[in-house]
């Protein structure tokens, strides 16, 4: 009788593990399908690249402004 109970316990354990495995497999497939459909019907928009001035150009403008400010300061002395 004890062997029969162990066998029944093993059957239920295997059945439970199979059910959990199938549920997780279906869940993963549904999530993949959902991601595919969302990307298909609502594609991610690529943001526009706004051209910016280079650091060298900005630095040159800063240097020019500083030189102009120094020359104006020296004129007024």
Overall 3D form: rod-shaped
Count every beta strand, where a strand is a DSSP E run of 2 or more residues: 0
Major β-sheet profile: none
How big is the Rg? 36 Å
Approximately what portion of the residues adopt beta-strand conformation?
A: under 5%
Count of discrete domains: 1
Straight-line N-to-C gap: 112 Å
Report the uncertain regions. Answer: none
Roughly how much helix do the residues carry, as a percent range?
A: over 70%
Number of distinct helices: 2
GO biological process, one term: sodium ion export across plasma membrane
GO molecular function: lyase activity; sodium ion transmembrane transporter activity
Organism: hydrothermal vent metagenome
Main location: membrane
Q: How are the SSEs placed, and which strands pair?
A:
Blueprint: H1 2-41, H2 55-75
Written description of the protein model:
- The chain has 77 residues and is mainly alpha-helical.
- The protein has one domain.
- 79% of the residues lie in helices and 0% in strands.
- It has two helices and no strands.
- The chain has helices at residues 2-41, 55-75.
What's the quick description here?
This protein has helices spanning 2-41, 55-75.
Defining traits:
77 residues; mainly alpha; 2 helices
